[in-house]
């Protein structure tokens, strides 16, 4: 049975990994994904809303994002929100939908995004190591028997290694997505 300190440490590490994966999703790979625009905030109904909260987002092909607001009154707000977000996309209003074509990415731009992915991965690894450090500190303060402390330290190291390997695997996958040309 796992100790409470180990469970808390693993939970913190999982949050660091999940945050890193979310950051990876926001990196433009040249392939259209709803994640590229869903968290952009727009001014609608007198307040700030995310696009995914007021519209259906689809990707009919790898070079196009289509946003269909549930209320046609927010079409202009959606288009303006994407432009203001300054993510390099140029939305077009087409009837009752906003079409967002993805521009072709240059080699230099792809390499820039690889660097961004590496930075996010390193930040995620730092978060995992901080969780490990906090967990080991909590073990020392818990004043458990020495043999149990050693066993729990090894358990924390195993989940640390797994979390860092997860980030590394996802980074390799993201790098492959970024460098291969469609």
TrEMBL record:
Its main location: cytoplasm. It holds the Pfam family RRF. It is found in: Cytoplasm. Keywords: Cytoplasm, Protein biosynthesis. CDD domains: RRF. InterPro entries: Ribosome_recyc_fac, Ribosome_recyc_fac_dom, RRF_sf. One of its GO terms (molecular function) is ribosomal large subunit binding. Responsible for the release of ribosomes from messenger RNA at the termination of protein biosynthesis. May increase the efficiency of translation by recycling ribosomes from one round of translation to another. This is Ribosome-recycling factor. It comes from Synoicihabitans lomoniglobus.
């Amino acid at each position: 049975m796992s100790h409470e300190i180990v469970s808390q440490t693993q939970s913190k590490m999982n949050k660091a990994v999940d945050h890193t994966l979310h950051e990876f999703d926001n990196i433009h790979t040249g392939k259209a994904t709803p994640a590229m625009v869903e968290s952009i905030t727009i001014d609608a109904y007198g307040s700030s809303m995310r696009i995914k909260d007021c519209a259906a987002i689809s990707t009919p092909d790898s070079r196009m994002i289509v946003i269909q607001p549930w209320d046609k009154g927010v079409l202009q707000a959606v288009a303006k929100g994407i432009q203001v977000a300054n993510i390099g996309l140029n939305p077009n209003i087409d009837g009752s939908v906003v079409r967002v074509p993805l521009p072709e990415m240059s080699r230099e731009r792809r390499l820039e995004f690889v660097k961004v992915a590496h930075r996010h991965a390193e930040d995620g690894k730092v978060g995992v190591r901080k969780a490990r450090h906090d967990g080991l500190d909590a073990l020392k303060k818990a004043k458990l028997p020495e043999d149990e402390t050693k066993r729990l330290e090894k358990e924390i190291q195993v989940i640390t290694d797994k979390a860092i390997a997860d980030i590394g695997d996802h980074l390799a996958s993201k790098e492959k997505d970024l460098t291969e040309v469609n």
